[in-house]
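Technical note accompanying the year-one report. For the benefit of new consortium partners, we illustrate the data format agreed upon in the data management plan: each record pairs a sequence with a structure-token string. No post-processing was applied to the example shown here.
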Amino acid sequence: GARFYPRLRVLPMGFSHALWVCQEVHRKILIKAGMLDSHMVCDREAPPSLDPWAYTVYVDNAIFFGTDKQEVRDKMERARAAVEAAGLPTHEVQHCEGSAEVLGWEILSEGIVRPKPSRAWRVILSIDWMLSQPKVTISDLDKLIGYCTFIGLIS
């Protein structure tokens, strides 16, 4: 009759909520570190002002941007320190000014967000290849639809 409480060191990718759990853990760490929800860019919500700063979380990536360079750097450093203090690994920090490449996207200083050209060409060439095949697997079709959906989300 003894109880035990399992703890996972990693979440298997087949676990249907693995990405959501990972993103929520990171989001909660950032909120605890003082990153306000009112500054967070979230799906299906009006975006916050970028003046002086805003951020978003995508799985285990935190992206900070804004009009005040020092404020953006300070918030990013506070977030990085909080994630490391929680015992989680962090990605390499990348500072950009003006335009940036983030997670396969180009964010241009003119306010344009688009897929990186290499990603867009990969999808175009994949469509061409698939159309040239007499038969394709459902798995290949599923992957291609996923890539097209990803690009279509912002385009």
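Partners are asked to follow this layout when depositing records. Helices lie at 18-32, 69-85, 117-132, 138-152.
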